[in-house]
Amino acid sequence: MTAICFTWLEPLMARLTGKHSEIPMNTDHTSWLVASVEFGEVFITVPAGLLADRYGRKPLLLMTGPMCMVSWILILTTRSLPVLFVVRIIQGAAVAIVYTVAPMYIAEISEPRIRGELSGHFQTMWYVGILYVYVTGPYLSYQNYTYCCAVIPIVFFALFVMMPESPYYLLMRERSKDAERSLVWLRATKQVDDEFDAIRNSVQEDMKRKGSWRDLIATKKDRKAFYIVQIVCFIKYLNGMPAIVSYSTRTFAASRAGILTHSQLTIAMGVILCVTTFFAAFMSDSVGRRPLLIISTMGSVLFNLIVGAYLYLAEETHIDVTSYQWIMYSAVAGFCIVSNIGLGPLMQTIQAEFFPSHTRGIGSGITEVTASVATFFNLKQYQTIADLFGIYMNFWIFAFFGLIGGLTLCFVLPETAGKSLGQIQHEFEDSVVVEKIGSNDTMNGSIQPEVVVTKQIVNSKSEATKL
């Protein structure tokens, strides 16, 4: 639903900037329209996280259905450029709520053994929405296309209203009986006592501190988790994927004519995104988050360099590269594959896993602010850089950001696959204690007894959590 809101303009850009456009505009207008969705996101993400902790995950997610419906009604009833900007802001707010709250909700209702899979399918459904846009947009009239988009929020609302609230949230509000009923519904069995006790203990421990933005950086453990999430977020949204899915038709047009039309190539790219993300979701719990994220980032660097080199030859030289179009198409396909075995599905997983219960809402909100800023830069500068230097320069910039990010992940990213949310928090504590021990070894030449005792206590807690 929100993926459609994010990308619905992409197949219409050539039509909207043409002579017979229903809403006359130029390429600068379209670049602002594409990027303006982030204005709605950046101001809503933090309030969405706070409201999710206060009123619940489910009510906020349900609210996005009517928000999207209002935006489509405005599109159907007006033909005004200023109104389209208002529409984009409303749609951006809906995207912000979903991207802030849905990862929390999915992580909190999932069993640890399949949490990575379910979180990964969040990204799969995002790309299904994008493919829906690619398939319908080029071949329908403006009005019929809008009708097709407007149906989806109605379907979402009718289905999601039957889902239960997160048991984590209900325990945060001290509604133990409701939380147990929610868990029984989610697991389809009444034998949930052990899991319920583990969740309750984890929430009680997390809730000993009041959840505020200061708690995100209150301790070394919290700061480490917060910084890693922001790094992964920047890498995901600066590696080029937002611009590629939003400007794919123009990118393929720059490669000159081929066997397939630009719209058909865009549809093929959408299929690749859906298929690779679907299968990648099953890999995150077996292969692990860390190797997939590092491979994904460094692979994206390689394919961005190849696409940039091809477009440079096509745009800036007199070399005829038409017979080598398969190189660019293969590189774009390769980028879609490697980007979506890690960065695509795992950003939301990392975001939901690294923040404890009492800061998960505000932490997710701030992370989505980071995502909005990075995405706005990615979307708005794509057109500007393309006009100043050529489309090729965008891909080299994407490769630069990816290289810096990939090298950083090699040093800072821990593994969390197969671990409960409580275990992950205890292991962050373990890592901080180990750093203290190393520091004392270096300074004093020996390990201080009190540090050893602290480490033993933390490890005993971790083992108890595993049991």
TrEMBL record:
This protein's name: Major facilitator superfamily (MFS) profile domain-containing protein
MF terms in GO: transmembrane transporter activity
Q: Keywords assigned by UniProt?
A: Cell membrane, Membrane, Sugar transport, Transmembrane, Transmembrane helix, Transport
Sequence ranges assigned to domain Major facilitator superfamily (MFS) profile in this UniProt record: 1-417
Q: How does it sit in the membrane?
A: Multi-pass membrane protein
- Record keyword Transmembrane helix present: yes
Q: Which interval of the chain is the signal sequence?
A: none
Residue ranges of coiled coil: none
Which PROSITE patterns does the annotation name?
MFS, SUGAR_TRANSPORT_1
Transmembrane feature ranges: 59-77, 83-106, 118-136, 142-163, 225-245, 265-283, 292-314, 326-347, 391-413
Q: Which InterPro entries match?
A: MFS_dom, MFS_sugar_transport-like, MFS_trans_sf, MFS_Trehalose_Transporter, Sugar_transporter_CS
Task: Tell me which species this is from.
Answer: Rhynocoris fuscipes
| Keyword Ligase (UniProt) | no
Q: Could you tell me where this protein is found in the cell?
A: Cell membrane
Note the Gene3D superfamilies from the entry: MFS general substrate transporter like domains
Question: Which GO CC annotations does the UniProt entry carry?
Answer: plasma membrane
Q: Which SUPFAM superfamilies match?
A: MFS general substrate transporter
